[in-house]
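Researcher: Please predict.
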Amino acid sequence: MEKVLIEAKDKLTQLGIEEQLVSEIEWCLGSYAHDHNPEGLFVKGAEAQKALEKFKKGNPRKVSKKLIDDLTKAVKSK
């Protein structure tokens, strides 16, 4: 989950969207590194998945299907 969430954060940053979500993901990653509680990663992973899917509808070539699929699998693995 951690790896795919970092990829999603990087993609959101690259696209210049969801700045608040990017900040929250960064905070959750730092928190996870400290306490190893993955709950926040799953919550923010689901939010990132929705944001990327929404962006992909209008810009299909800018977000890879693999990234969305990886996020979906990671969120469901909870």
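Model: The longest helix spans residues 39-58.
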